[in-house]
Automatic annotation (TrEMBL):
Ranges where the AB hydrolase-1 domain occurs: 88-343
Pfam families: Abhydrolase_1
GO biological process: acylglycerol catabolic process
Name the record gives this protein: Lipase
Species this chain originates from: Actinocatenispora rupis
GO cellular component, one term: membrane
GO molecular function: monoacylglycerol lipase activity
Family matches, as SUPFAM superfamilies: alpha/beta-Hydrolases
InterPro entries (alphabetical): AB_hydrolase_1, AB_hydrolase_fold, AB_hydrolase_sf, Epox_hydrolase-like
Amino acid sequence: MATPDRRRRARTAGLLGAVVGVAAAGVAGGIAVQKLLVRKEKAGPDPYRDEPFDALPYDTETTVTTDGGVDLHVEVVEAPGRRKRSAPTVVLVHGYALDMGTFHFQRRALTEAGYRVVAYDQPGHGRSARAADGGYSIQALGSALWRVIEQVAPDGPLVLVGHSMGAMTIMALAEQHPQLFGRRGRVRAVALISTSAGKLSEVPLGLPNVLPRARARLLPVLAGAAKLTPGVIDRARGAATDVAYLLTRRYGFGGASPSPAVVAYVERMNERTSIEVIAGYLETLFTHSRYAVLSVLADTDVLVVAGDKDLFTPLAHAEEIARLLPTAELLVVPDSGHMALLEYPDVVNQALLALVERAGRKR
């Protein structure tokens, strides 16, 4: 006769199996219909077909080592002429399963405007090393950002720009080093793009509503599987290119016809991030809660950017940040998803350049 614990485990396994089955069936059904259109879509007109992604110039390439011993890849574009002394250094902090290429259009616009720009790959992402113990936390990311600032931008005014988990990293930095912010701090402005201050465990991601409730039980399973068979899973991801493209378009973009080249680029950034690293960040993302920390930014010029069709960090999360920071500017990008800064770069660039220009006028 089965024990109560065994019956409970059986019910849990059945629930998780049903959730995964329903989600997989929905995705597979959509893919079966849309997969035939992928090649045709990629062959259609695209203003960014020849865009030099991963090939923007820089003046300095260096390595910054975190307190945990992780080597971070950092690129610096120096400011020419008169801006070099007076204007702020802009530090770009990318998000989950991406890399510094997330800011491709913003980095170019800032460089053309004559600002000094620092971009780096977060631990486990891009060309940065992975954590030796496989453990990742937003708290550690805040500490890593501090090391980048110490080594690459040790003096002068700063503007911090974060996307998704990168904006959460800035919140963690504010938690650890509040003296950097406010009227007497070096950070004159902050841009928080497609992000959240907490309660990500309640976001359904467009999947069945039962999934958020079961997610706490799924996390250890996903993390364990990723550690046991990371190579197998990564090879499977690489083989399913059409599937990956469709999922990237579905969950990263809001518009009906995003640039195929941009979607493919985001897909490549995702693919370059190991499944072991992806799984390693899940718990810290779903337990992230830094609403109280936002008060540190109360006297800092803050720009909050959100896509109205973002499935990962819904618009309501940006609105909550803006509610807690009444002086912040909230920019809602219509018909945009989580990758608003790549999907509608001109809209985001205009607001970002205005923010950095205001920061340059402050004393």
